[in-house]
Amino acid sequence: MSSSFQSKNQLADSIQLADPIWVDNQESFDQMIEHLRRNPIFALDTESDSLFSYYPKVCLIQISTCDTVNENGTATTSKQEIVDYLLDPLTFDHLDPLGNLLADPEIEVIIHSASNDILTLQRDFQFRFENIFDTQLSARILGWKQTGLAALLETYFGVKSNKKMQRTNWAQRPLTQQQISYARMDTCYLLALRELQIAALKEDDRLEEANEGFSFLSAVDYSERPVAERTFWSMKAARDVDHKHMGLLEALWQWREKESQRRDRPPFKVMNDRALIEIAQQKPTTRHQLQNIRGLGEHQLNRYCKQLLRTIKAGSDRPAPKQQHQRVYHDRLPEIVMDRYEALREWRTRRAKQRGVDPDIVFNNDTLMAIAKAAPDSESDLQELGEIGPWKARAYGEKIFEIVARYS
């Protein structure tokens, strides 16, 4: 930690928590929106019920802000200034006024590991973001060894979050006090963490790089990304099953998918993968034989016995599904392109190691492949290839052009 940073105790003491404000009616929602309009910065996080439903939804939106802003537009976090809102989206038909704030370029939204929250909020509410500060991306650009929020909170603020709360049902009402305490911690310290990181980014001359990365996060569009389709091969354990059992295993998997959709439950809560595999291998034909399947409880047996026996009978002679193959970069690409790509990867790995960051902070593999294919020879050409802005083009362009010229 830089000598210019406050101590852990000073940071923790600078934040005094009042009771969070529960927002579940129009009056409290309007008051929250009016408060947020007066502040140029607020922190945001979400909780979903992906562990409890087949079709996950946002069940809670946490927002933290403060009233004091200095002349540089930076929110300060002196005592009694943090205001935490817990917004219950399950009680509203729409949240358009909040969406308008998120899309306002004059309002900065602080999120830790923003991509997932962006995509989730776009999916459920069609929100768009214009001005993001991602505290995880910032930590990674700085080369911090710990980038998870729980680790950062403990390291810089001396507070511990209850990770067990991640696996609770956020769709239940009322939320428990433990859930509320956990949820607010995901945002109430982000304002102070942002200040700390901005100081570090300036000191390391990385602020422009970080802002460039944030700008690309703001451009993420869920509607342009294909929804990942669940297939039989989503069950990774299937690849280790004997080929002769694969047809029945696929039939059992398809039965579980339909039952999960019908009940709106995650598949693993209908029946786990290991039980499906053992059923496919043993091919039980009676309830007594099903009782010997590990991972198949009495409750599941009572509920699904008849369905399972019908599925086993119908799927026993089913042919094995054709295995899917992962996309291969190298397929049918000219040798010169692959040579260029490998040279770029080697350079990227060395450069990342010198900086003390993960390789994808320099460039991810998709971007390297785009460079290898396009063979750019100018900074403007580089910036046309996707997530490469002026800073990266300027910082890395010379070496890239050298490698491209070497393999031309």
Radius of gyration: 25 Å
Give a count of the beta strands, DSSP E runs of length 2 or more. Answer: 6
Strand content: 5-15%
- The multimeric state of the shown protein is single chain
Average pLDDT confidence is 90
- The SSE string, one letter per element, is HEHEEEHEHEHHHHHHHHHHHHHHH
Low-pLDDT sequence parts: 1-5, 326-330
Please count the helical segments: 19
The biggest sheet, with number of strands, parallel, antiparallel or mixed sense and barrel status, is: 6 strands, mixed
| Class by SSE composition | alpha/beta
Separation, N- and C-terminal Cα atoms: 44 Å
Helix fraction bin: 40-55%
Topology:
Blueprint: H1 8-13, E1 21-23, H2 26-37, E2 41-48, E3 58-66, E4 82-87, H3 96-102, E5 108-111, H4 114-125, E6 132-134, H5 135-141, H6 149-157, H7 177-188, H8 190-203, H9 207-218, H10 246-263, H11 267-270, H12 273-282, H13 287-290, H14 298-315, H15 335-355, H16 359-362, H17 365-374, H18 379-383, H19 390-406
Parallel strand pairs: 1-4, 2-5, 5-6
Antiparallel strand pairs: 2-3, 3-4
